[in-house]
TrEMBL record:
SUPFAM superfamilies: Aldolase. The lineage of its organism: Eukaryota, Metamonada, Anaeramoebidae, Anaeramoeba. InterPro entries: Aldolase_TIM, DeoC, DeoC/FbaB/LacD_aldolase. It comes from Anaeramoeba flamelloides. Signal peptide: none annotated. PANTHER family: DEOXYRIBOSE-PHOSPHATE ALDOLASE. This is Aldolase. The keyword Protein biosynthesis does not apply. The keyword Cytoplasm applies.
Amino acid sequence: MTFVYIQNPISSTTLQERVEFVSDQLGLQPKELHSFNPHLKKKQIVLHLPKTFEKFIDHTNLNVQLKSKEVQQLCADAIKYQFRGVCVHSTKIKQVHSLLKNTDLRICTLIGSFPESNAIEGQLIQAKIALKSGANELDIVLSTSKILNNEYNELYQHLKSFESILTEGSQLNVILETGELDTPQIIDACLISICANVKCVKAIQKFGSRGSSRKNIRLIKFLVGLNRHVQSFDQFSNPKSVWDMINNGAQRIGTNNGIELLNSNAKIKYRHNSNKNKNKELTNKKSLLSKQKQKEKKKERIKDLAYVFGLSFTTSLIIGNITKKLK
């Protein structure tokens, strides 16, 4: 079994500053925010690495003009390749639900628009219809402009307004445009999401230059902890780019070319972040060899002493052990 270790990428000072700032903006006590995610004080979290990534893929096509036959093919592929779920435009949910109702695949849809979501009233209506049609995951875009302007309480109240309409088994996700945000802003957005009981933070690379880099995925994963997921959404060019994200904490992959990625992955050896394991094995081997050499040297010294004093090897060995205990 292979594991990936996500080290705390934030200094304790920076984290404390962000926790205090966000708590103040939301009208909470810092200890209340910590209670939503107790592991924030830990040095690392440990994730189990899969041997293949099909269960991580959200098969995605948000095209509103998607035809009925294309929806059928999308769902058939998701079933065939055992993907985690399907993500479509809200107008396609009803058909997708009818095609996937006898499976355990998740059905996700975008509420509002990208990059900036529309009015909350319209979003709530759209969300209720989507849930009634069979969706069990709702993606809400976190407004980049509100993050940049520190309008945190408004963001928080926006997300909290969906809490009352969620049905059993459904969840709220957020889409975070990391390309336009710096590290403190990403931290703040994640802390707000945690407080609003968001289950997955989706880092998307679309408009900004930074995008859902490995560094950002690792940062977000540490912040949201083990009970929440991180998705990297991108047009992945090869399996290695997918493994890079998984090795840094992504537990979901949003893409429309999952089939090509899986087929390519089948042709290469499974890649994972095993450098740490290899280094540990190498260290253990060196340590074992060093101990063996020390034992051999000890035996040689005892033999020399036995020869000098005319003692047997066994007698010298007993004397040596007694002397060692007396020390």
